[in-house]
Amino acid sequence: MNRTYKTLRLSISESKVAEVVFTEAERGNPIDQAFCDDVNALSAELAHHAEPGAEGGAKVRAVLLRAEGKAFSFGGDLAFFNANLEQLPRIILEMTSQIHPAIARFQRMNAPVIGAIHCICAGGMVSFMAGADLLVAAEEARFVAAYPGIGFSCDAGSSIMLTRRMGLSRARRYLLLNETLDAKTALAAGLVDEVVAAAKLQEHARALAERLAAGPTRAFGETRRLLLSATDQGLEAQLELEAQALARTARTADAREGITAFSAKRKPVFTGS
């Protein structure tokens, strides 16, 4: 790791879980220019380390996202926006030019992403976290649409990630009515995958990350990318994408290990290669 981040902390465990912690707790972990720059650089670093290296397996095989503070995130930095109203359209384009490519890179890398939300999460951060493969919330968590309240349309993948998780009609209602969903309602709507007690949140999310990090990382990557195209490709095109992805997976050491272990009636040991 060569990058020094201003708004987050990155550590990689021996089990190859990359733990990303948003650290601007006193400011409510806002989405500002520094955050967008950090996330863009982070996505490149994680995607790089999620590929097999010269020594074989990937350095990063799962990613855990969490935050410090009384708020997971209040979304956009409204104090900064208010101080720069005349320049705001340009600033928005600059910020989205950083965070939007990062969101796409997170979706396409091999390592699965797990999110752990412990309290209030608003606006663009809801959308960012909705892109996680598995999203776990504490019972106290709240999810605020936020955009209509300040006269904004949505960004950070809201129209994609929320629709994929909640369905078009439920996402529309959430965004247009500026709803705040408690954890139980978010679970019922499909916005989150699990709700656990606050005291168990980090332990549970980390266990999920460890489980995924022990899996066939390159196969996970192929599956993640196939799911991205599942709704916009025709049947024949998507079937061909599946065939090509499976052929690539069949060349991996993990696939050979999986088949061999199954034949020998033992648990496979995947290396991410």
Task: Give a structural overview.
- By secondary structure, this protein is α/β, with parallel strands linked by helices.
- It contains eleven helices and ten strands.
- It is globular.
- The model has no long low-confidence stretch (mean pLDDT 94).
In brief, what are we looking at here?
The protein is an alpha/beta fold and 273 residues long. It contains eleven helices and ten strands. It folds into two domains: 8-213, Alpha-Beta Complex (2-enoyl-CoA Hydratase, Chain A, domain 1), CATH 3.90.226.10; 217-263, Lyase 2-enoyl-coa Hydratase, Chain  A, domain 2 (Orthogonal Bundle).
Throw out a few tags for this protein.
10 strands; 6-stranded mixed beta sheet; alpha/beta; 4-stranded mixed beta sheet; 2 domains; 2-enoyl-CoA Hydratase, Chain A, domain 1
Instruction: Report strand %.
Output: 15-25%
What's the domain count? 2
Biggest beta-sheet profile:
6 strands, mixed
- Class of secondary structure makeup: alpha/beta
CATH class of the largest domain: Alpha Beta
Oligomer: single chain
The count of strands amounts to 10
Basic shape: globular
CATH topology of the largest domain: 2-enoyl-CoA Hydratase, Chain A, domain 1
Integer average pLDDT: 94
What CATH architecture label of the largest domain applies? Alpha-Beta Complex
What is the helical fraction, as a range of percent? 40-55%
Record the SSE blueprint.
Elements: E1 8-12, E2 17-22, H1 33-49, E3 62-67, E4 71-73, H2 78-83, H3 88-108, E5 113-117, E6 120-122, H4 124-130, E7 134-138, E8 142-144, H5 158-166, H6 168-176, E9 180-182, H7 183-189, E10 194-196, H8 198-213, H9 217-229, H10 235-250, H11 253-263
